[in-house]
Design goal:
The chain contains 14 helices and eight strands. It is an alpha/beta fold. About 45% of the residues lie in helices and about 15% in strands.
């Protein structure tokens, strides 16, 4: 009997030791903006005082562009997701992008408000701060939802709209990234504010790419480090909580009211917001154009910047 107790004690101690080793190996407390900025806020980055926050932004291209393009990223991403688009457009177009509240170097919303209406107010405030009156807006996923909501709220200012795998309708995901699932589970998400295995980020990225082989260590580095920006992990959990309270019927009515040139780009391999939702947007937004890129996933502008920006450029040039 004593031998059995000793064996159980050894097993228990071994489990505890390995558990502690795992925690220590993945220990990842919040990091300050000042620690992250040297790598992720290099020129031409700036910070603008907007609605009680310091919003990380980049404003590139000719200032005499009559219709600047504002780019809005999706959940857990950052303004860097648009690098390829900006490189291709900034020689002829003014392109503005920024980290949405709760993400990137901008960090948590000053009032912890992650409603779409609050995000629209931030877009309007950033445009005002940069002296932009009329503009085109493009957004991916959450950014797409904010884009069409901005077009609905500011019809006199938003002249062109590009929706890329946009949120807005009720959806039936075929697969949800593990990082999103963790953020939705009380208790587990609290632990995730201190412990973050790099593998969680890599798995989540591979989940939303049409070709997981395109997920590079450098890409994982970017998402991983910016997730650690102080407050971002708690903000993600708060956003998911608030998202459940959104009025789906009100969203559909707003989408159907849109009356502006609209391009819809979708990844045919999107498992988070399946392509069926693309066809709903195309049916509800009168006169819109739909382009489905069969090989791409949920973040087409990042997975294939060259191919998607070519489609966007053609739309912007011909719709002026």
């Amino acid at each position: 009997m004593k031998l059995l107790y000793k064996m159980l004690l050894v097993v228990l101690v071994t489990v505890v030791v390995f558990a502690l080793a795992g925690v220590l190996a993945t220990w990842a407390p919040d990091r300050k903006v000042s620690d992250l900025a040297p790598r992720w806020a290099q020129a031409p980055s700036g910070f603008a005082a907007v609605n009680g926050m310091q919003v990380h932004f980049r404003d590139e291209g000719p200032r005499d562009d009559p219709l600047p393009l504002i780019l809005l990223h999706g959940t857990s991403a950052s303004l860097h997701t648009w690098d390829g688009w900006v490189d291709a457009l900034k020689d002829k177009r003014r392109v503005i992008r920024f980290d949405l509240p709760g993400f990137g170097l901008t960090g948590p919303h000053a009032e912890n408000d992650y409603s779409v209406e609050a995000y629209v107010r931030v877009v309007e405030a950033v445009a005002n701060a940069l002296g932009v009156k009329s503009f085109a807006v493009a957004g991916n996923s959450l950014g797409g939802q904010i884009a069409w909501a901005t077009a609905h709220a500011l019809p006199q200012r938003v002249q062109r709209l590009i929706l890329i795998d946009a949120a807005g309708y009720p959806m039936a995901p075929q697969s949800i990234p593990i990082g999103f699932r963790i953020a939705r589970v009380p208790g587990v998400r609290s632990l995730a504010e201190l412990v973050l295995p790099r593998g969680v980020i890599e798995s989540s990225l591979r989940n939303v790419y049409g070709d997981p082989g395109k997920v590079t260590p450098a890409l994982v580095d970017r998402y991983y480090e910016l997730t650690l920006r102080e407050g971002n992990r708690r903000a993600l959990a708060q956003r998911f909580d608030q998202m459940l309270k959104a009025d789906a019927g009100q969203s559909v009515a707003a989408i159907r009211s849109l009356k502006l040139p609209t391009l819809i780009i979708w990844g045919g391999k999107d498992r988070l917001i399946p392509v069926e939702n693309a066809h709903r947007f195309a049916a509800d937004v009168v006169g819109s154009q739909l382009v489905v890129l069969d090989a791409l996933g949920h973040v087409p502008q990042e997975e294939d910047a060259a191919g998607t920006v070519q489609v966007a450029r053609k739309f912007l040039d011909t719709s002026l």
